[in-house]
Amino acid sequence: MTLDLEDLITVREASRECRRAAETVRRWIWEGKLPAQKLGNQLFVRRADLARVCSEGKSRDKAAKLAVLEGIRTVRERIAQRIGGTIDVLEALDRSRESHP
After folding, report:
1. Secondary structure (3-state) at 35
2. pLDDT digit string (tens) for 16-54?
């Protein structure tokens, strides 16, 4: 397999492109998620490999955010069942401020 040097980017460049910390990119390399080539003292990754790993990370991030939102929704429903309705947070905050001058 021929190595196309124009396809390789440094860890720093990869972190900028993927909008992640350089340490995160290095961790992906050490965990084997992101193939890398060491040239001299510097690690390089292929853009195609980086795109694959970044898109997987974004999918996991989105799934994690959705899981948090679902958890919040569940807690809201439990609270509504306990008190027999919903809470108007702004109204509760106003009442709290009025009672603590």
Report:
1. coil
2. 999 999 999 999 999 999 999 999 999 999 999 999 998
